[in-house]
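task queued by scheduler; priority normal; single chain, no ligands, no partner chains; default sampling; output format set to structure tokens
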Amino acid sequence: MSTLPLAQPTGAATSPPVLVNDRREIFGWLAYDWAYHAFTTTVATALLGPYLTSLAQLAVGDNGVVMRLGPFGNVTATSFFPFCLSLSVFLQVFFLPVLGAIADYTNLKKRLLALFSFISIAAVCLLFFITGNRYLLGGLLFVIANLSFGAAVVFYNAFLNDICTEDQRDKVSSRGYAAGYIGGGLLLALNLGLVLGAKTLGISTGLAVRLSLLSAGVWWLAFALFSFARLKTREPAEPLPPGTNYLSVGFKGLWTTFRELRRLPQTLRYLGGYMLFNDGIQTVISLAPVFLAQELFTSQQRLDGTSQSFVIQVLLLVQFVAFFGALLFERIAYRIGTKWAIVLSLVIWSGIIVYAYGFLHTTNQALAMAAVIAVVLGGSQALSRSLFSRMIPAGRESAYYGIYEISEGGTSWIGPLIFGIVVGITGSYRQAILYLIVLLVAGMAILIMTNTDQAVHDAGNRLPEEAAADPRLPVELGSPA
């Protein structure tokens, strides 16, 4: 496949051109999705939530008080993990946009991606030592890991604009998520075998869970190093202004981004809708293991590992089916447009929540629901990312993705906060999950009212069909090698 040199950024006239649509670099980018999904599947979704919840319940009782927050109520054993998730993402609201703005004025995007990956990986590996009454320390390590993970993904997403043209982004983004589902799924399968075979191996289920958490950090590190070797460093579109430093330019760049958004009303509207509907989606994904464990299994089954084994099987099903779902929705987007493919996925997501609230009572029903989730999971995530990538002004990718990441890739905060409050008041996970449909419906309504084509043109970019018609561009993106 042919490649194209990128335009030289301001202040980088002496730098050699960097190619776009380069198969080797795209493959390196896909490898990072394969790498970090070890964290999102094994740690954030499958094992850590039920494990920390069980430790807290053993220490203070099934719905005992873990922390008292005065006028803000109490954090109970059942709401402890949702609280940790919400806290980590609340911190990202202030942290990620500034980091993204800094990256746009420097050539540190790749280094920052590596730095925050290593911080998160270290925190994940330390979870191996969380036992007994150390659940509070486990919560703190998860906050650090998820905060750093969100920062790393900001820079990873920003590379999408660097490595391929507008007409290839639905495909590359979808392939990225597909690779992530397979990578995360393979590791989850190994961990499933470890947890299910713990007694045969002569170890406790708790030790098997902790070894699985450790494996996620090692997996992430190994494949991330390969990714870092293939991703190329690019010069900033605008150099660091004289008399400024990274911190000051970060806040200045963030302010500039918000001022630009006022002149890009359709992009701003899309962001608002996305932050609502994806917050609901990410909350369902992150808290589904705890929901299934609490609603379908007894306390004894949760303690002896029966519930954890079933949850891992469900998530394993989701990972491998989601691989095909991501590729399917890329084709649907090609037929009906990216925006309407996302809307279709949101309609299905809303039906999933209603089903979980009123009709989910058996493990077989949970498996059926998981299969439907798997089909729409990749489509809603991958297409949302690629659509947004076309609405970003050139040279401002990291700053915009810093805002985008506030509600992306398991970093939601409104949903977990709502979920935790409702669980704390009612003690019911079913009541809590029903409230999430408000986020999905509101976000979908805003998306429908957004003129996404205008948003692309307002940002100075081309629609996919316009980019594909450019005779200088390759017609088809080949398989990376």
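post-processing summary
- The radius of gyration is 22 Å.
- The mean pLDDT is 86.
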